[in-house]
Specification:
The protein has 170 residues and is mostly helical. The protein is built from 7 helices and no strands.
Length: 170
């Protein structure tokens, strides 16, 4: 493997190498390990690289089990029987669970709702700064709209967190 370093960084590594007689590769590795810290364990746990050999696994299912898995795949948002089996298998093995497509979509919607609320607040502040006057009716209407959106978002957050916390408990 070949890695390009910025000339300044390479000079620093060479000086340390000459002073302490530590190979440049070891210095680079120790810098990487120090920077990653606990994330290395997470990376090792989820080492799902496609470079490894593919193993074929055959599973025998009863018809009612197959139907159950197909229904579960429709609910979860994974479109194949193989995919849903992999999803369930991986979630039963790893401590850090995988999120399914529907959960990811819920988090994305949640993020966009929060962004929308922030934009509304920004609009109000911009309007106040430009016009220096306040129409109470407009402000009350806007605050009521924001309050409704905040209530909806709070409800979504509670639902998502309850569901996610249930999933991650063992």
């Amino acid at each position: 493997m070949r890695i390009e370093l910025a000339p300044e960084n390479l000079e620093i590594l060479k000086k340390i190498n000459q002073e302490y007689k530590i190979p440049i590769t070891s210095l680079a590795n120790s810098c990487i390990y120090e920077k990653l810290g606990d994330k290395i364990k997470l990376l090792k746990e989820f080492d799902l690289s496609l470079e490894s050999d593919e193993t074929e696994l055959k599973i025998r299912l009863y018809e009612n089990e197959r139907k159950y898995l197909i229904k579960a795949s429709e609910i979860i948002g994974i479109n194949s029987l193989t995919g849903i089996i992999k999803y369930f298998l991986m979630n039963s093995i790893y401590d850090k669970r995988f999120l399914n497509p529907n959960e990811l979509e819920a988090f994305i919607k949640f993020k966009s709702e929060i962004n929308m609320i922030g934009r509304n607040f920004h609009q109000i502040l911009k309007h106040l700064n430009i016009h220096k006057e306040l129409k109470t009716d407009d402000l009350i209407n806007t605050m009521q709209e924001l309050n409704i959106k905040l209530d909806d978002t709070k409800q979504e957050i509670e639902t998502i967190l309850k569901y996610t916390n249930k999933r991650f408990k063992k």
